[in-house]
Structures are given as structure tokens and as C-alpha cells.
Amino acid sequence: MTTADPTNDTNPGTGAGAAWRAVGADGRRARTRRGLVPLVLVAATVLAVLVVPPLFPLDQQAVDLAAKLRPPSPEHPFGTDEMGRDLLLRSVYGLRVSLLVGVVAALVATVVGIAVGAAAGALGGTVDRLVMRAVDVFASVPHLLMGIFIVAMFRPGVWPVVASVGLTHWVSTARIVRAEVHSLRGRPYLDAAISGGASRWRVTVRHLLPGVLPQAGLAAVLMVPHAIWHESALSFLGLGIPAHQASLGTMVEAARGTLLAGAWWTTLWPGLFIVVPTLAIAGLAGAWRERINPRRRSELML
Amino acid sequence: MSEPIPAPATGPAAGPAAAPALELLDVTAGYDRRAPVLDGISLTVAAGESVGLLGPSGCGKSTLARVAALLHRPWAGAVRLAGREVRGFRHRAPRELRTSVGVVFQQPRLAADPRLTLADIVAEPLRATGRRAEIPDRLPELAASVGLGGDLLARRPHEVSDGQLQRACLARALVLRPKLLICDEMTAMLDASTTAALVAAVEDHRRAHGTALLAVGHDRVLLRRWCDRVVDFPPA
Fold first, then answer.
1. Which terminus of chain B is more solvent-facing, meaning fewer CB atoms within 10 Å of its CB: N or C?
2. In degrees to the nearest 10, what's the CA dihedral of A88, A89, A93, A99?
3. The total number of structural domains that make up chain B
4. If we measure between CA atoms, which residue out of A143, A231, A131 comes closest to residue A177?
5. ipTM
6. Most confident region among A74-78, A298-302, B4-8, B229-233 by mean pLDDT
7. Is residue B7 part of a domain?
8. Averaged pLDDT for residues A119-138
9. Cβ contact (<8 Å) for B98 and A197?
């Protein structure tokens, strides 16, 4: 594809114009390429966790000690773990739990974050200062510590983990939303709305939140990998998903003992199942952020 | 014609007929902890009168307009609208007091929500005040009076010119039939013909509804031809 057509080159501005267009086209292509690999990976992940479980049901409790710690082979492409369970199937099931927890926890965190951030930003003044200082206090406690504290109050299961991750990760979204609301607050169109009789609620819902949603949505997507890692960390510590259920964190933890005996596959595959999809989601979010605001340099902020 | 007018010595009772549309008495206002932008300013706009406020940029006339539109709380002094003392500003002002003043800002790009269509922008005050039912009647009539024809109403701010957007902003300021219209450098960004059209639209509306006008600007020629009275900033 050539953009410079010599027959069209009649006025002196065309050369520069063609250069501009070329830059634009290259930039577009680069952006598309940038988002493509993560997109394919995320699509494959989602497809796998949706399609595989109905086709290959897994008995979470079943063990086959005769087939324990088999290296990768045609009948067990990822090998088996120390209980003789197929690692591929368990990894997919573990990924399903991780994605579910990640998405739901990110949604919870985003909703809480938007509510707190929008309230602080829209009310302003003393309320804003008080709320944001409370947020600072909340943020000063390590996420994992607070997460462990929340999980420890409940029976092991998926929902305590969701609550634990969701209730510890809204802080960054609240800050983003509040900053965005603050930058929008000075716009004359809000003055015009106030002058037109709009209530505080109406100004917030109709004018402020729609302006904030793209950033909040992006924060939500960037939160998903973080939430997945958190779920894995809690499971790794034995505090998350019940031990018999397939979970990537639990699998990595159980594989620690066999790793020294030379069984590399028990750690590698669950580890890759944690790292690759989360990086793919983060990469996709990065490409999206570049689309929303090309001026802001995009880097993986995790 | 442009000599500073003396501040009224007494209250609203001084006027023979209705109370003045706007009275600012000894208003001091500013931002944060910096020196005040307005220092003891007084200004009166009689009911139905049009007053031009003239001053160089940065002198505080926009702040004065924002105070008069109840969008900025002054540090000291009194603001009266139609003889009624204003106690709260922005959301703390009662709704009927806020909506009794229409405002047109200098930059239509910043004064229009980029996500709404022009029709929604113009109809927004009707929706906000629970008068949704009037939209089908008022919207076409108002759009025609400010010269927004064709499919312009269905477009969004980035799809129209500054002049077209400013027409929509003027329509929005007029849609609730305010008793006082404040035009803060309404035509500063516009060409001569659009300026003339907008001024004509304002004057048509004022003739029909007896609206008072406070036009803030730096263009002496325009304000002299437009307004009953031109005041130099700061009004004594």
C-alpha cells in the first residue's frame, strides 16, 4: 500500500500531507497490532473457560494416585499433579474461578470506587477532604493484609474472596474518579446546568458521571488482573478457594513440594495460566487507554 | 453615556416602578485566599433595562457576571434579584432564584456538555425543572428564534461551529424565560454576522418578555449600540 501517488502531487502541500497521512496510518496500524495479540489471548481464555467445562466435566474430588506426577504426554498434555489429576483440565477450571473472581471483584471495586470518588468530588469542600483522608488511611494498610483479614472472617469459598478483593481495591478507582470529577467541576457547562435549575444529583448523574465512565471503565479492566493475582495469592496462602477445588493459586502452592523432586510441569502450567491471561488483559487495557487518550503515554500500570 | 453611575443610596424602594432586576451592593469577591477580584462593587440593572458592562480582560467582569448569576459566592456585600436578597449561591440558592437568571458564557465549547445533542442542551433546563412536557412546544419555537434550523438540533457540539453552538447556549439561557439575562462576552468568539444575529435574537426575546440584560464585554462599539446604558468597569 503506497499513499504517495505521484500523479496527485500537484500542490506543494501534498508532500507534507502524505507524510502526515503515512504517520497516521502507521500509527493506526501499530495501535491495532498492539491490541491484537492481547485480544486473541483474552478471547481464547474466555472461550476456553466457557467451552471446556461443559464438554469435559471435572470431578473436583477425584484422585488417581497410580498416575501421580506423570510428565506431559499425549493423554495428559500438561502432565499430572501429585494426586494424579490432569493438570490441563484443572488449570482451565482454576482459570475459570480466577476470571470469575477477577471480573466480579473488579466490578465491586469499581462501583464502590465510583460512588466514593464521585461523592467526594461532587460535594467538595470539607466532605471531600474527610473522605479522601479516610481513603488515604484505607490505602495505607497493605491490600493483602486487609484481604486476609476479610477472608478470615468467613468460610472458605469464592464469595469471601470476591468481597476481600473488591473491598480492598476500590481505593485507586475512587482517587481516579475524584480527580476526574474535580477536573470536570470547573467546566462552565456545569455552571450552566446549575443556572438552569439542575439539582446536585442531576449534575452528578447527567454531567459528571458520563464524563468519568471511560476512565472508570478502564480502571475496572486494569483491576481484573490485579484481582486475579490477589485471588491466586490468597489461595496460595491457603485462605481462598477450598483446598479440593481447582484454583491456580492452590495448584502452585501444592506444586512447590514436587518442584524440588524435578516435576517442573506442576508449577509451570498453572503459573503460565496466571501470568499470560492477566498480562493479556492488562495489554488490552493499555491499548484501550491509548485509544481514549493517545497523549497519555501508555504503560502497563498494574 | 458611559460615565460611571452612582451606587443607589437607598434600597430597592428608590425606583418608581418594579424592583430592579439586579442589585449588587458593595460586593467583594475573589478566589481562594488571593487578593479580591471585585472590591466593593455596586451595580444596578433596572427591570427590563439593558446594561453593558465594559472592561479590559482580567478586570473581574466575568467574576461579577458569575456573582450576579449566583454561580460564585461573594465574600461580602449584598446581591438582590428583583428585590429579593440572595442568601445562598450555586446549589444553595433556591431553584426559582437560580433559574430567574439566564447565563450565556464566552466559550460555547466549554459551556456545552460534549455528550449531549444540541436539542438536549437547549431542553436541559426544562428537564431539570420538571417541565419536560413543554419541550415539544418550546424547543422548535426557540430554535427558530435563535436561528438553529435544519438538522442542527440533532448534532453534538463537536459537529457544529462555535457560532451555532453559541446559538444553542443562548437558547438554553432563554428557555426558562428568565427575568434577567447575563451575556458574559457572548459574542467575543464570533464573526460580525453571527454577532448581529445573536444580538437580534436577544433583543427580540427582550421585547417579547421584558427581560433585563447585563451584557459584559470589551467591545465598546457593540455594547453602546446594543444596550440602554454602558458602564465602565469597575462601576463606582
1. N
2. 40
3. 1
4. A131
5. 0.85
6. B229-233
7. no
8. 89
9. yes
| Nearest CB to A187 within list B98, B110, B125 | B110
Over the stretch A232-242, which tens digit does the pLDDT of each residue have? 898 888 887 88
Domain boundaries, chain A: 35-58+88-292
Chain A contacts of B128, Cβ < 8 Å? Answer: 193, 196-199, 202
pLDDT tens per residue, range B120-179:
999 999 999 888 888 888 898 899 989 888 788 888 888 889 999 999 999 999 999 999
Do the Cβ atoms of B167 and B111 come closer than 8 Å?
Answer: no
Q: Which residue of A lies nearest to B112 if distances are taken between CA atoms?
A: A189
Whether B189 is in a domain gets the answer: yes
Grid coordinates representing B156 are 453534538
Report whether the peptide linkage leading into residue A142 is cis, meaning its omega lies within 30 degrees of zero.
Answer: no
CB atoms within 10 A of CB B79: 23
Q: Does A191 touch chain B (CB under 8 A)?
A: yes
Q: Which CATH architecture fits A35-58+88-292?
A: Orthogonal Bundle (1.10)
The reported pTM is 0.70
Q: B206 by DSSP, 3-state: which?
A: helix
Q: CA of B13 to nearest chain A CA: how many angstroms apart?
A: 27
